[in-house]
Design a protein that fits this description.
Elements (H helix, E strand, L loop, with lengths): L24 H14 E3 L10 H5 L5 E5 L5 H9 L4 E6 L2 H14 L4 E5 L2 H6 L6 E7 L17 H10 E11 L2 H13 L3 E4 L10 H8 L5 E7 L19
Parallel strand pairs: 1-4, 2-3, 2-5, 3-4, 5-6
Antiparallel strand pairs: 6-8, 7-8
Bound molecules: S-adenosylmethionine.
The site of S-adenosylmethionine has 23 residues, from strand 3, helix 5 and helix 8.
Length: 245
Amino acid sequence: MGAAMTDTSARPIRTFHPRRGRMSSRHADAHAALWPTHGLTVLDGDRTPLDLPELFGRDAPAVLEIGFGMGDATAAMAAADPARNYLGVEVHTPGVGNLLALVGELGLANVRVARGDAMQLVHRIAPGALDAVHVFFPDPWPKARHHKRRLIQPANVALLRDRLRAGGVLHCATDWPEYAEAMAATLDADPGLRRLPSMPHARPETKFERRGAAAGRPIADLRYTRSSGAVPPAGAAETVVPPSL
Ligand SMILES: C[S@@+](CC[C@H](N)C(=O)[O-])C[C@H]1O[C@@H](n2cnc3c(N)ncnc32)[C@H](O)[C@@H]1O
């Protein structure tokens, strides 16, 4: 690939908690074996276009999963859906190692694993290139002063919608009722998205879903499709962290 295109103009607001974590030897072995062929490092500000058919070695409908955690649901979905390519992106290193281990153990040829900030990666994906985007149990950031860190907010939704093909699906799930309401309001307000009936069984249960359900929290699945009509260009602007943070 040619020289990297970078945008260093803005420092992004982070949607994730910095978390420590070490890879187990199973994760480290999988990382050593599979990262060169199945891994992708996401660098802040890198705007080099990502060629999805080149990344997967084949041209097939592509699903992006943002914040896959330990990757069990990603691996299960990819195994059950070999005709589509699955690109998972996560910042948590043990999760990256775990998904790579599952890729090796299950022999998944249709999975690629990106490490870094998902919204940085999304900028590198061409408009209309994705068949689906999955955002399962994103960090709820319950305190009002942290709501700006939530992944599902208007500028991010506009960017994700722009990367979907017409008819492509944005599927979000949360166990946090107040975030579910805010998500629905944001997604309903996007001019290029149309709500679909909820289909909770359209995905496997995730680790964080199990935790939420065990704590008695209700699970909300919100599915939207990108309309085929013209939509305003994505408000791809990244916001800047105020100096006080
Ligand atoms: C609450 S966990 C849910 C994990 C998994 N989807 C599940 O349901 O078990 C949210 C995950 O999203 C990841 N995450 C949050 N913001 C992210 C971002 N901008 N890019 C990549 N991963 C992100 C976090 O590291 C965390 O692992």
